[in-house]
Design a protein that fits this description.
alpha/beta; TIM Barrel; 8-stranded parallel barrel; 3-stranded mixed β-sheet; 15% strand; binds flavin mononucleotide
Length: 432
């Protein structure tokens, strides 16, 4: 595997000072620095929606290394719409003792640990769920029904309940996942959302569900609990959400009681253009974040493409971002905040993969998270086919456990489910 090198944004050596200033959130919680572990679906749940020892250890490692904010990806309130069978589920009957232990260990040393409230919508994993989105779809590898009015009216209350549950268990906040083509991103996107009722059509209507849910969450958790949202700057799809509409959404969110807007982009959707075709020299959403600044006073987290300390420092120093979201960098080097705090610094070596199967890179990073959680040295191999096979096998083995724990009426069996959807955006939404 060859490490990547590059020039451009953040190429100069920088004093790390700006990255280690505290960040007060509107709710009153103060983040201890400007480094966030961005949400990653770590695939370390026990297959029944509960946490494992490896998962607790993983979040503890990031907390020990000094991340100010750490976000557990894809935590589901409704097991029918999970992204994968390795997701956590915060629902009645959840293993509260272990969840509370995860909350405690992932918050070590003053890290604020958020759960990302997921709902995969049309992209719910078919072997364990019932994909449903804003509008019915019948595409190769992606079939779903449209949500009914009753479904939509129930959602704000359901999300609010999950957020309140997270708070009771000791988590430090929630992030509403409205990016990457999952349910709320589907609603925002004119491509997925073809509804003609009050949740479809104009941008004001497409945003309605997100606003109703954020409002319900805030009412449920009170004024002093961090509530963030992850949004796409663009879907990177022809006919999808574009930057101008995304800026209008940010302007509308300014009036809502939120603590952080986490900017990302891209969509897990069959046929999406490979974002490896994009120019990827430096962080991806800096220019968009600068435009977003004029639309809101809510703190901005910018996630995607940060590979060097100098890039992160520059984004904070120049005011494009209040906090930097790192996903792959913290999978490559879980001790990165400590390293970046030291005078010498040191950046992770990003592997440069030869083109592999769709979903291979996501699988590779996910398996790396498993190794970190198990305190193993990750295999130094770039075999994306092997990574994908191991990742899919593990998920297949979890399916019977999940369906036993969460029986779902009318659910497809493994045999009649369509070919499981795999992301084609070069490896994962938000990154090439
Ligand atoms: C293995 C893996 C899993 C991810 N899972 C999620 C997720 O559950 N929720 C989410 O919002 N983003 C998820 N992402 C996207 C990251 O949060 C981030 O937006 C993206 O990787 C770009 O940041 P990076 O360049 O620092 O990796 C995932 C990324 C990776 C690598």
């Amino acid at each position: 595997m060859e490490p990547e090198t590059r020039r451009g944004y953040g190429a100069q050596m920088k004093n790390p000072g700006p990255l280690f200033q505290p960040l007060p959130l509107p709710c009153g919680v103060v983040l201890k620095n400007r480094i966030a572990k961005a949400a990653m679906s770590d695939s370390l749940g026990d297959g029944r929606g509960g946490p494992t020892a490896a998962q607790m250890r993983l979040y503890e490692r990031w907390a020990d290394a000094g991340v100010a904010l750490s976000i557990i990806g894809e935590v589901q309130g409704d097991p029918r719409f999970a992204e994968k069978p390795g997701n956590l589920v915060l629902a009645p009957g959840a293993d509260e003792m272990r969840l509370a232990e995860l909350a405690r260990r992932g918050s070590a040393g003053g890290t604020t640990l958020l759960v990302q409230l997921g709902h995969a919508g049309a992209l719910a994993h078919p072997p364990i769920g019932t994909p449903k989105g804003p509008s019915a779809l019948d595409l190769p590898g992606l079939t779903c029904a449209a949500m009914t009015r009753q479904d939509l009216e129930a959602l704000p209350g359901q999300f609010a309940q999950t957020a309140a549950h997270a708070r009771r268990l000791g988590f430090g906040g929630v992030e509403l996942h409205a990016a990457h083509g999952f349910l709320l991103s589907q609603f925002l996107s004119p491509l997925f959302n073809r509804r003609t009722d009050r949740w479809g059509g104009s941008l004001a209507n497409r945003m309605r569900l997100v606003l109703e849910i954020t409002d319900a969450i805030r009412k449920a958790v009170g004024p002093h609990f961090p509530v963030a949202i992850k949004l796409n700057a663009t879907d990177q799809l022809e006919g999808g959400l574009d930057e101008d509409e995304a800026l209008d959404i940010i302007a509308a969110l300014d009036a809502v009681d939120l603590d952080l807007i986490d900017i990302s982009g891209g969509t897990y959707f069959p046929g999406a253009p490979a974002s490896s075709d994009r120019k990827t020299n430096g962080p991806y959403f800096i220019d968009f974040a600068k435009r977003a600044r004029s639309k809101t006073t809510i703190p901005l987290m910018v996630t995607g493409g940060f590979k060097r300390r100098s890039e992160a420092v520059e984004a904070v120093e120049w005011g494009a971002a209040d906090i930097i979201g790192l996903a792959r960098a913290l999978a490559l080097d879980p001790a990165l905040p400590r390293r970046w705090h030291s005078a010498d610094g040191g950046d992770p070596e990003f592997p440069r993969f030869t083109p592999g199967p769709e979903g291979g890179i996501t699988a590779w990073y996910t398996l790396r998270l498993t190794a970190l959680g198990e305190d193993r040295t990750p295999d130094d191999t770039d075999d994306l086919h092997a990574a994908l096979a191991a990742y899919e096998t593990r998920d297949r083995e979890r399916v019977p456990h999940w369906t036993q724990r969460f029986p779902i009426q009318g659910q497809r069996t493994l045999e009649d489910a369509p070919v499981p959807f795999v992301p084609v955006v070069g490896g994962g939404a938000g990154w090439p």
